[in-house]
C-alpha cells in the first residue's frame, strides 16, 4: 500500500509538520501502516520534550471537569509499557521508562483538604489511589519533610525520560523509513480547497496527500491555514530544574514526589541515572523562554519545603519550555474542516503521557480516514465556530 | 637591567606560578621594572576572578580586629582609579571599573544594630560612611524592599568587572613582554637551599632567579616547597549568580546594594552592561566547586528579600569559585625564609580589591629585595613557627 511517490520524488502520502514527540510518534506509527511519510522540522527530536519532566500522571493530575480527558490519559498510560518496549526494540535505545509510582503529599491542612477531595474524585472515577498518613508517607520516602500531613500513593503513575523518548522516536522513524526534511514549514499549500503540502522558509515546496500539523505551541502560526481552522493553542511557559543525586545520597527518592505548595505544583522526578528533575512553573508569557531568578527561586523554595535535603544536591541545569495549551486543556486530534489537513497538537501538560495513544490514533485516521472512538471527543472541530459543524458532529 | 637570559633561553629573572589576577599583576608590574618574567599557568586569566563579583569594598567589608588589613585595603582602593586607567591604556581594553558607591542595608532590627556598630567602627577608623534612614535608602535605590530599616551609604566603595580585569591584565602582560608558559607547575626546584625554578607536569624544567607562588587556593600544594614554608591557605567556596537586567528595567540598581540576611552576606553588583551579579555563599568544603540547589536557593531567597524585583530578571549563570583564605584573612606578600621563593597569595575576599597594591608591592620587592612599608605586616614569615624568625622580624 506504500505510495508510488516513495523514492526520489518530492511528494508523500503524509507530511508531518513538527518533529517533537507528537510529530515523531505520528510519523513512526503512520509509516508502520505502510504510508510514505515526510517529517519537516529544523531539529527533529527537539521541542518541549527537551524540558519536560516526563511524569505519566494520569491519576495524580486528574482535575474536576476533565473526566473526558482522563479516559484518554488512562488509556495512554495503559498502553505505555508495551509502547516503551516496542519503541526500545525498534530504535535499539533505552527510553528510560520507569514504573516507579507517585506520591502526592500535603504539607499543611489546606493541602490535606485538597488532596482528600482529589482522592474522593479518583475513587469515584474508579482509579487506584491510596490515602496515607504523614508517617506512612515518610516511611515510603524518608527524605520527605517531617511536616508532611498525609498523601496519596498512586502506584500506577510512572515516568519516562522525555529526552530519551525523543531520541528513540527519531531513531525508530529513521529505521522505519520516515524521510526527514530539516527546515521550517512556513506556509500550508491549499489546492482546490484541499491541503496539498507545505512551502518551507527556503522556498522548497513539499507535496503530500495529507498534512499533519503537530508543531506544539507553534501550531497556530502556520501561514496559509484558513483563520477559522488555526488551532487555538497558546504557549504556557514551564521552568524546570535538573539536579543530580551523587551516589553517596542514592536512592534519594524512589518514586515521583509531588505537592501543591501555596497554589503551585512542584514535583521531583528521580531518574535511575541519578538525575532529579524539579518542575515546573506555569506562566502565561507568550513565547518567552527565559529562565528567571523568580522561577528558579519558586521551584527551589517549594522543592525545599517538600524535600529539605535537596539543598545538598548539585544543580546541573535550568531551562524553560512551552506547553501547547488548548482552551479545554485537551489535545486536538484528527481531521479539520479542510480536507487533507489534520491536527495533532494542544497536548498541554500531557504530551509525554499521550504519546502512545496519539501515535495510534493519528496513524489510524491517516490510514483509514476514521477517527477511533477513544479520540472522538478530541476532534479539532469542537472549537470551530460553524454551528452546522457542531450539530452534525 | 633586563637579564641577559631574555630571549631564546629557558631561564628568567622571575617565574610567576599562577595566572590569576594576582599572578598577572605581579608579572606585569615586575616587567615594567625591567625584569624578565615568565608566568606559568594552564589557562592565564582564569581562577577565582572568573567567579568574583568585583566589589572594591574596603569600607563596607571592615571587620573588627582587621584594622591592619584595612590600611592595605584602603591604600589599594586609593590606587584603583589610576591603576584602572593605566591598565586600560596598556591593554587597550575596558576593565569595567565603575565608581558607583555602595549601600549596605539593614532589613530588621538585629541587622540595624549590627550596621550601627559597623558605622561606629568606620567612623573611629576615619572612614567615610553615612547613616541613612530606611526611607532615604529607598529614595536612593527605589527597588529596595519596603522593609529596609536603615543603611550605610559608602560612596567610596566601587566595583570592577573581574573578568575584564583578568583579560586586560593578560593583554597588558603580553604587550609588556611577559612570557606565558601554558602548563601546570608541579614542583619547586631547590638548588643549594635556594629556589631555582619549577618543574612542570610534562617534565619541563624552568629556571629563574626568583619564584613567586601566586596560585590562589592551590598555593599550598606545590611540591618541593619545604613543609614549614607552604602557605597556610585553604579554599573557601563561593557560589555566585549572574542575572541580567533587560533595558526595560534599567537602571535597576545604580550602586552595589548589600545586606546581612540571617547571618549571610548577600550583595547585588550592577554592571553598566546590564549584568547583575548576586553573591555569595561562603562554604568550607575543600576543593568542591559544585553549584548546589541549596547555594542558589539561599542567594535567591536573600537577594529577593533585599530587592524583591529580582524575580523578573533572567538568571543567566550559576557558578562557584574558591577564595584563598589565610588564618588571619590577610594576604601573604613577599619573601619567605627560603631565598628566591616569594608569595603573593591568601587574598581571601579581597583579591580584586588588593590587585593594584599587590602588583606594586611584589614588583618592588622583586626589583629591590625590600618589602615596602605598607606590606610589612603581610610578610609570610608571620605564620612560620621558628621563634628566631619571629623575634628578628
TrEMBL record, chains A, B:
<keyword id="KW-0560">Oxidoreductase</keyword>
<dbReference type="GO" id="GO:0043799">
    <property type="term" value="F:glycine oxidase activity"/>
</dbReference>
<dbReference type="InterPro" id="IPR012727">
    <property type="entry name" value="Gly_oxidase_ThiO"/>
</dbReference>
<dbReference type="InterPro" id="IPR036188">
    <property type="entry name" value="FAD/NAD-bd_sf"/>
</dbReference>
<dbReference type="GO" id="GO:0009229">
    <property type="term" value="P:thiamine diphosphate biosynthetic process"/>
</dbReference>
<dbReference type="InterPro" id="IPR006076">
    <property type="entry name" value="FAD-dep_OxRdtase"/>
</dbReference>
<dbReference type="GO" id="GO:0050660">
    <property type="term" value="F:flavin adenine dinucleotide binding"/>
</dbReference>
<feature type="domain" description="FAD dependent oxidoreductase">
    <location>
        <begin position="13"/>
        <end position="364"/>
    </location>
</feature>
<protein>
    <recommendedName>
        <fullName>glycine oxidase</fullName>
        <ecNumber>1.4.3.19</ecNumber>
    </recommendedName>
</protein>
<dbReference type="Pfam" id="PF01266">
    <property type="entry name" value="DAO"/>
</dbReference>
<comment type="pathway">
    <text>Cofactor biosynthesis; thiamine diphosphate biosynthesis.</text>
</comment>
<dbReference type="GO" id="GO:0005737">
    <property type="term" value="C:cytoplasm"/>
</dbReference>
<keyword id="KW-0784">Thiamine biosynthesis</keyword>
<dbReference type="GO" id="GO:0009228">
    <property type="term" value="P:thiamine biosynthetic process"/>
</dbReference>
